[in-house]
Design brief:
Distance between the termini: 28 Å
Helix content: 25-40%
Radius of gyration: 14 Å
Strand order of the largest sheet: 2-1-3-4-5
Strand content: 5-15%
Number of strands: 5
C-alpha cells in the first residue's frame, strides 16, 4: 500500500465537490480553518457549482470529474480533500483520467458518498483517509 507523506504547514490542499453541493458559507469556513492551520488551499473551479435541474449534485458529472482530474494532475497539490459527501461520486468513474491519477498519488480525504472513490483509490494501492470533510 502506498502511504502519502504527512501534510505539513505550507503544503497545498485541493478542495473538490465530487458529490452533492456545499453551501458557500460552509466551504469558506472550512477553507479558512485549513488556512489558519498553515495550509495553502486551492478550491476547484466547480466546487460551488450546482447541476442544472438537479439540486443534489455539485455541478455536472463532467465539471465534478474535471476538478478531480485537475487536482490530481497538478504537482503543486499535495492532498485532495472533498468538500462534502451526499450523492454522485460513483457517476464520475468513466470520466476520470485513471492513468494520470495513478501516476500522481496524493493524500485523499472524505467520507459518505466519497467511499466509492476511496475504494477505487485502494485498487491503485493507495492508503486514503475516511474523515471529516471541508464543510
Amino acid at each position: 500500500m502506498l502511504k502519502h507523506r504527512r501534510l505539513q504547514p505550507g503544503n497545498t490542499i485541493g478542495v473538490v465537490s465530487p458529490s452533492s453541493p456545499v453551501p458557500e458559507e460552509e466551504l469558506v469556513k472550512g477553507v479558512e480553518l485549513l488556512q489558519a492551520r498553515g495550509y495553502r488551499v486551492r478550491v476547484g473551479e466547480h466546487a460551488l457549482a450546482k447541476a442544472p435541474h438537479c439540486d443534489y449534485l455539485a455541478g455536472t458529472d463532467a465539471q465534478r470529474a474535471a476538478d478531480l482530474n485537475v487536482m490530481f494532475a497538478d504537482p503543486e497539490i499535495d492532498a485532495v480533500f472533498c468538500a462534502r459527501g451526499g450523492y454522485g461520486a460513483m457517476r464520475l468513474f468513466d470520466l476520470l483520467d485513471w492513468e494520470r491519477i495513478a501516476s500522481q498519488p496524493k493524500l485523499f480525504v472524505g467520507y459518505s458518498d466519497i467511499t466509492s472513490l476511496h475504494t477505487a483509490f485502494a485498487r491503485l494501492g493507495w492508503v486514503t483517509i475516511h474523515a471529516t470533510m471541508v464543510s
